[in-house]
């Protein structure tokens, strides 16, 4: 298992969270949607993130630098939808 870093930026509050998680060695070779799912599955229910629903509006993969970028909306209770951007890379790539 490899270590990955996800940087999640919340549009409304301007907050930036940095989250390390484990995943398969070839995670970044997978489709960007799969990379985001792996991060969200690892973060689901943790103290840092809690329960979260989301929709992906765009997902890009930069193979040269090994970075996946996802843009979408976090779905809070009720009708509250807030934009986010998430970048995922190998944790040792910093």
Automatic annotation (TrEMBL):
<protein>
    <submittedName>
        <fullName>Uncharacterized protein</fullName>
    </submittedName>
</protein>
């Amino acid at each position: 298992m490899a270590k990955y870093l996800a940087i999640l930026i919340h549009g409304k509050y301007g907050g930036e969270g940095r989250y390390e998680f484990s995943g398969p060695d070839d995670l970044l070779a997978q489709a960007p949607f799969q990379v985001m799912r792996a991060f969200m599955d690892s973060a689901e229910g943790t103290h840092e993130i809690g329960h979260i629903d989301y929709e992906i509006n765009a997902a890009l993969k930069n193979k040269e630098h090994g970075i996946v970028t996802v843009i979408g909306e976090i779905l809070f209770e009720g009708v509250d939808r807030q934009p986010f951007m998430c970048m995922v890379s190998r944790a040792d790539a910093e």
